[in-house]
Amino acid sequence: MSVHNDRRRTALEHWANTTIGESLDWQPASADASFRRYFRGRPMYADEAGSWIAMDAPPEREDNAAFVRIAQLMTDAGLHVPRVLAHDEDRGFLLLTDLGERTFLEVLDADNADALFGAAIGALLDWQQASRADVLPVYDRATLARELALFVDWYLMRHLRYTPTAAEQADIDTAFDFILDNVCAQPRVYVHRDYMPRNLMVSTPLPGVIDFQDALYGPVTYDVASLFRDAFISWPQQRIDGWVRHYWDAARARGIPVGDDWTGFKRDLALMGAQRHLKVIGIFARIAHRDGKPHYLADVPRFIDYLTPVVKRFEPLAPLAPFLML
Fold first, then answer.
1. Where residue 184 sits, what CATH number does that domain have?
2. pTM (2 d.p.)
3. Residue 70's closest CA among 90, 54, 94, 52?
4. Which of 27, 38, 52, 272 has the maximal Cβ count within 10 Å?
5. Using CA atoms, how far apart are residues 311 and 326, in angstroms rounded to an integer?
6. Alpha-carbon distance 82 to 153, whole Å?
7. Are residues 41 and 65 in the same domain?
8. For residue range 264-315, what is the model confidence (pLDDT) as tens digits?
């Protein structure tokens, strides 16, 4: 759609300019897997500094009240997140501070990974340590189970056009119950739900945190699994083990409920990762077939690679193995 025919963008830019009190040059900043769009506004003249982010989030599609509420919750926890400068609830327009243009994903390499992941771990610990019950909705078994079902509904049946037999579906359900029994028994903390390098910004202070509007109160290992088993970049197991150990040691020192059994924590992390990997495969298939964004399917093999050793490690997950080779 051209900018001239994009009525929402035109209305968003007019609203943002009026709110700021200046006509800015607005250019696309990013889009994501949701229905949200972001535009960066800068002064028309090069000698004027400053930039803002205008977010277009159709209210019938996106929970903008949650974005505003969780932004404040994260700010209170000491995280560096965009400040909400203005919000048109009826139209789904938000004006935000700009955390910069570079994500961790764009700059991460073997040399700077320790420093960047160290900063990410520090922010995650601040977020988790601020956790309180009855503030965010619970990331409960029903929600986790619905997410697992995406693997069958969208990846197997829609993308691969494979319908499991009744016996195969029973085996899948048994494997999913094994995962759910573990992750639902884990202590709960605040969960960002997409805490990964693409949603962490190179900013001052480091990191800037974005895309947090789906945060819940759930398993303590979830954001750790997200951070180190990323959708778009993979790391050697030895380095991941070092970062996870650093997180675990620091979490214990700060009273975050990760337990005192390192082996048990790694088991919990592996099974939480399995839930997330299966969910993401299903989500990527859904985005491709429902939303017309097929490029997400290119990263499905990465999640198959993440899942394969976990399925081999835990006997109750063995029935899932054939479906990772279709």
1. 3.90.1200.10
2. 0.92
3. 94
4. 272
5. 15
6. 35
7. yes
8. 999 999 999 999 999 999 999 999 999 999 999 999 999 999 999 999 999 9
